[in-house]
Amino acid sequence: MALRGVKVLEIAGLAPAPFCGMILADFGATVIRIDKGPSSSLFVDNFLSHGKLSVSLNFKHPDGIKVFKNLIKTSDVLIEPFRAGVMEKLDLGPKSLLQLNKGLIYARLSGYGQEGSLSQKAGHDINFLSYSGVLSLLGPDNAGPLPPSNLLADFGGGGLICALGIVLALYEKSKTGLGQVVDSSMTRGVAYLASWLFRSKHSYLWTQPRGQNFLDGGSFFYKTYKTKDDKWMAVGALEEKFYKDLLIGLGLREDEVPQYTEFDLGNKIFEERFKMHTQAHWINVFKDLDACVSPVLTIEDANHLDHNVSQNTFEKSFDTGNPIPTPEPRLSKSPGQSRASREPPPSVGEHTLKVLQSIGYSQEEILSLAKRKAIYLHIPNSNL
């Protein structure tokens, strides 16, 4: 796999940092999750930790900090998810760690970045969206702004863009041998993710308030419609050729529903027409029409769709058996492999002994560290 041989330390957290580590792990990196003592299990995102190793350290103990620094010396990447200044207070900021390992890629994944008036402020996806300006564009016209779960800032503008930054830094390191700091702000990241929206904001696509534009639910030929069996169909017939096929499928004439006039009338007619039949009926109607009309599938339905099955879009989770997406993009020579379909997530401290031995600690030294509560071992069925 493309990142085989790359060693990553990921300080345990929720959502964006674990997702960033998951991407790297799925493409071959060895990812060691650094848990902060046994109590950190309350704050660990195990949904995204399959196939990772867990080393549990006490960052309040000087020997725990020393162990962490020794791990840094043999690592390629660090992912840390804290607000600005937290790592510096522990003497674990970039200046300190890059002196230990000049090739280290120090990835900082935070809500607001390392500088500025918000850098010390707490926040979640919805807050990063709101400060970026993106949230103001999302949601219906008859209600307040509505975030699409926590997908955009946490995962898109956060974990995914941070992973891109790490890969770019790895490429630079391949030429120079030197690491660098990757400063990934979820507020800046989600703004960058929305570049097309910002750049097209004053075009014909976005002349109306939120929820009343061509692509945000304001046009009757680009939205979802409920069917007779309370399921949904998605309509994206923007171009004239697709709109013509849409009307054929619905049994309508263009003089009855012209595309770019009478939006309220078109919306009413389409709502009534789609409610006349079940989702299965409309799937059959549009299967051979190039109308950009599709069923809104549940996760389970998507898992069984023949197209997705043929492309192995989903696999079964190792521990739950539920469908999980396979890694993207597909590489012809070194494709990724979902760790979640092959390995369970680690228990906190499950690999502390193994990993510390791999960097030169003896079993006696490790047990002594554990007795002093500088590290935490989780070794079920062990005689140690």
Automatic annotation (TrEMBL):
Q: Name one GO molecular function term.
A: alpha-methylacyl-CoA racemase activity
Q: Where is this region: Disordered?
A: 313-349
Q: What Pfam families does the record point to?
A: CoA_transf_3
**BP GO terms, sorted:** bile acid metabolic process
* A Gene Ontology cellular-component term: mitochondrion
- Stored Gene3D superfamilies: Crotonobetainyl-coa:carnitine coa-transferase, domain 1, formyl-coa transferase, domain 3
Entry similarity comment: Belongs to the CoA-transferase III family.
Record protein name field:
Alpha-methylacyl-CoA racemase
